What does this fold into?
Amino acid sequence: MAHPSVDPLAADRGSNGDRRAERLLGALVAITVALVLAMIVFVLREGWPSFAHNGWSWFGGGGNVDRQTEAIFTSANFNRSWVYEFHAWPIIWGTLLVAGLAVAVSFVAALFVAVFVVEFAPDWMRFILEPVIRLLASIPSVIMGLLGVLLVVPFINDVLIDDEARRSVKYIVSLNGYSLLSGVFVLSLMVAPLMVAVFVDGLRSVPRNWLEGSLGLGINRWRTFWKIGVRTARPALVAGTVLATARALGEVVMLAMVCGGVGFAPNPKDGLIFFLEPTKPIAAAILQSAEELTSPPMRDTIFAMASILLLSSLALSLAGWAAKQPMKKYGVRA
Amino acid sequence: MTKKTTGLAAATVVALAAVPATTQAATIVGSGSSASTPYVEALYAAYKKVDKKNTFTFNANNGNAGAKDVQEGRSAFAIQTRPPQPSDSGLRYSKLFLDALTISVNPANKLDNLPVKSVKDIFTATQTEWSAFPESGLTSPIQPFGRVATAGLFTYFTSAVLEGAPTASSVTPVDKDGEVAVAVSKNPNAIGYVGLANSKPASGVKRLKLNGIEATPATIKNLKYPLSRYAWIVLPANSPNKAATKFADWVRSSYEAGVVLKKAGAVPAFNATKKSKKK
It folds into this structure.
């Protein structure tokens, strides 16, 4: 033969190289897992004093969480005994509300948009829509925060809130546009594109012949897509929702800018005003107290808040995994 | 690795380690008051001509946090907007220049004077309606904006205006001085306390006279304006960074810094009024 044959030794060396690469990658994975575990242990350990001092009431309500934060922070200043009293309910509630409502709103919107993009949009529109959606998903959160402060907050204040509503709660909070609603609105704009991107990929991977089979039976396009396409893509819907919820839980800067920064638990009994009341999600609370890390009791409290966020992300991934299991049988992988 | 490459690598490491020792250029980190950021940035820009070697950076993480940074060695100096407190052990405070806290409202508000006592009433929710101030021309509820507890201005405002009383929960706290100005400029019913630099006419807010006295360089300098105050530079009491000390001296006493401060909206207190002759 004119050209040199494959050198068996070289091939052997290659497989050795493969094995080496395997071991290297294995080690990297092990390091990653170890890092994550170490992080969880570290955060929990640092936050433990705060939990230990408050017991279960840490998660409860009672008092003003902002005043408590201030008291904890300043207690280290004057060589007094450290204060730990902290009742996190308002910020936990704020987190649940902002993230939950934003994900719920975006889920509905994203599902319809994804179905439209995959099945009903003409090619030229799809050609424009998809890059735009991906671009939207990657807008930095501080830019969304600025848009929120300069456009959304003043709009809510000028258009949606009247003086009567302001008067009804004026001794407790100010209704000035910095609110749950502005947080949910801007956060939905941020997580919906992410959801759409994942949903679109999921819906696309539904086997065409399943859909064609249904169409062949004389079932109309909308119903076919809804009953076969969306159902089959359920694992992708769950995956997208989990990703979006994780992003919503971890969103910091924008929420700190538009939610009002008051550790107040919006009260559903207040009627529609509920949506206009200010709140402070955990991540924003951590950001605003990050400068107070120098005070040891405050540091413990901040880590306690961080561990709640960390554990809820963990729980979220597990819940997403568990939810996907029964759907796998007839579903597409996601 | 062969011996040659090992030797080369070792030489490179030694050389890299030696670089800072020979040129002695350093990054001087300052932190603190976000209300003073506009001044600090202007001063840095001008100081580049004086100290060509070192780079100065400023982290606007609010005055109280800045003082802590210096205590713990993270920053070489801090700019603080309140006088020293017992918590400031190990720190040396020096007056730098004069600044003022302004009480600002939206330009739609016709009010132009407030007694300091009324400001206290507003921020402790004793007074919640603009109708109590007929000159304002408004009949809506007052929407006060303030700062988060890490801000030196929060501490200063709490002691100078609220006389230690806690801020009402109806006051919306925001992170930075400029954000208060933005919030007030966007909301006709708002009132907020803003540093002098961020309440210039271009910022879209209107400064109020306090007890009938306007915040002008003259009234701030003779301390007639009720909320005139010094901006302080905070250095460690023991072995402060030389470049930072030099910078502080330049800001406090040089004619050039005085010009910069005036332009940025502050009031120089100790700066030379005439250009010194070059030696």
Notes: The first strand of chain B starts at residue 27 and ends at 32.
